[in-house]
Amino acid sequence: SRHPWDNGAAFKVGLHESLASLDKGLREFGSRLLLIKGDTPQSLLELVKSLGVGGVYWNRRYTAEAIAADRQLKVALEEQGIPVHTFNGSLLVEPWEIKNKAGKPFRVFTPFWKNCQSSAKITAPLPMPDSIPSVKKRPSSCALGELALTPQRSWVKEINSHWQFNEQQGMALLEAFRDELVSTYSAARDVLSKRGTSTLSPYLALGILSPRQIWHAIQGAVAEHTGLNGEAEAYIRQLFWREFAYHLLYHFPETTTQPLQEKFTRFPWRDDQAALELWQQGKTGYPVVDAGMRELWATGYMHNRARMITASFLVKDLLIPWQRGAEWFWDTLIDADLANNTLGWQWVAGCGADAAPYFRIFNPVRQGERFDPQGAYVRRWVPELSQLPDKYLHQPWAAPTDVLEGAGITLGKEYPHPMVDHAVARDDAMIAYNLMRQQVAMKAL
Ligand code: FAD
Fold it and tell me: What is this structure's pTM?
């Protein structure tokens, strides 16, 4: 495994595109983006000196590594007499702004959310400036390509074909959501085959849009149509899950690799590289799991419901540590976000804050039937199953041979046999969970 969490491959594809569009945007205002390769404090100090800079401004970050690096940079600049000004550019509520009744960080979402609703002061975003003053003496910049963010692979082309990482597109998606999709959000968000959500997560992760812009756009829609209130609240609530994730990341920084609930350090996980790879490649033999994993590989995104189903399959049906899944998501998600990814994985694994209880184990067949009843999602991402009737689409092994033949499938050839029997896997997961509980109880004796 690779820590501390350098940017993942898919995220870097988005970063390359968004930096290119930021540069283009700045040039329209007579400025431009300056890229420098090298040690950050040293390069910045040299630049500041050569330009006679009067102050350095940046937005605050919240991972332990970033906080340490930024603090060091601030000290280095201030030692040279250069003032530093930092801002909140990516959250609605910074992690230290609110505390629970006992004066401690929140570990449960609902009270966190209630507290935010009553106390958070979310100011309106500032308008775009008319111009951006630029320095006369132009320091030399390295070309974006020199940062080597994107590997030369067909995978990059495929990812890019699904997205446009610029502010205009971010705003267009936000407006489309505000004007239309928000009105059906609470029901549509769980339909696997639909784009019922805002798909703004990559824009948030890359810093193209801020949650304040989103929050204000949605409040504006509610002000115009009070009938939207309930749906808008359901959406804003999800936006606050992201805030909660940052709250936890800041207060419990070790949770990116360690379970928040300590007892889970005793969980008898399995080390099974071959099984991990079948999951990564979308070859588990469970259609809805495979569809999710293949959507992720092809687009750098996965529907939230599919994230829960695929993650549950890895940690509960395969008993592979959630950290291995989090690492794979980190490398392949275009919206890779250390706070949200950590929260999501610990939630599914049952070891995090306000997590799903471990013993609630998703049945991948039932989940498929419930959230992809006509099978459009599975047919799109697992096309070899597309001829199978709805009745068997989520469990091809249950189909009579002639039905399989009619659909052009031989299990084990065009599509794999299920890699585990869910009923057996479920029992094994409960045995593992109870073993952990016994160990914890014995330790307490
Ligand atoms: P919408 O439904 O339109 O929600 C709007 C915004 O609210 C999202 O963009 C996101 O910022 C926030 N949000 C929504 N749901 C959640 C949630 N469950 N937790 C935290 N914030 C949420 N999200 C990431 O941004 N990056 C990740 O790396 C990430 N990893 C995840 C891993 C697992 C195992 C799970 C179960 C979830 C993960 N999520 C992650 C959360 C969620 O799946 C995505 O934020 C969501 O699917 C993004 O799509 P959207 O923008 O259309 O969401």
Answer: 0.97
